[in-house]
Amino acid sequence: MRLFRKIRHKQILDNKKAQYLKYALGEIILVVIGILIALQINNWNQSIKDKNSLNEYLIKIKSHTSQDQEQLEELVKGRKQIADLCKKARNSILDKTENDNLFLFMMSGTAFADFYFKPNSGGYESLKRSEYYGKLNNTKIDSLLARYHGLVDVISENEKSYNQYTVHQENYLDTQFDRSLILASAFMSRDSLAIKATPQSDYDQAFIEYTAKPAYRNVISLAAWQFDTMISQYNQLIELGHQIIKEIDIITED
């Protein structure tokens, strides 16, 4: 009987140990599940914060791109008007009818104006410096932004080259010609000029001589064909801008 009691007591102890082990294992499993859930919630919250932060950058880029679009459309309009005038002036040169088109040549002088596209790249540069830029790798918006700002650089170089050339030609003309009569004719009204001692024929002759200079005609000829290239690039950038805005709308509305 004593032997049976020992065996029974041992079974009871073994059973308690087994129950304790099951309870302890259950607690461990619950703790692990709780940690995993907490990590998942934390990752989910962080993912939402990252998405919101990235969207803020993209919305800023969208706003800046919209501003660029307005500026580009004005540049297209202005460049086209000047290009059309310069093409007519170039044809007049070829037809040897310059003296009959003094007003046309006067207006073609706007080809000397140094227009520059000044993009607002603040949002894009801020995104590039942020920790969120890598999240756009190999995405459509990443490709569009790279193409957009690559074309911005090309446009900047073309504008710089053209404008530097016109400034050089204009500076040369200033050393070769007294522009006082031309400036007076360009900016003073006919009534004001009529009361001056200088007759209108002198103003017209001064302008004929000035516009006959190779430096003046070189700028007109350059604008007549190069502006078409610039306008084409502006339009390409406008189209890329529309695509960027559309893609940002898709991303930020998700």
Key attributes of the depicted protein:
single chain, 254 residues, mainly alpha, 83% helix, membrane, transmembrane helix, DUF6090
Count of alpha and pi helical runs: 8
Beta-strand content: under 5%
H/E series: HHHHHHHH
Helix content: over 70%
Structural class: mainly alpha
For the sheet with most strands, the description reads:
none
Report how far the terminal alpha carbons are from each other.
77 Å
User: Tell me, what's the shape?
Assistant: rod-shaped
Low-confidence segments, ≥5 residues, pLDDT <50?
none
- The beta-strand count equals 0
Q: What number is the mean pLDDT?
A: 85
Instruction: Supply Rg.
Output: 37 Å
Brief sketch in words of this structure:
With 254 residues, the protein is an all-alpha fold. 83% of the residues lie in helices and 0% in strands. The protein has a domain at 50-177 and 213-253.
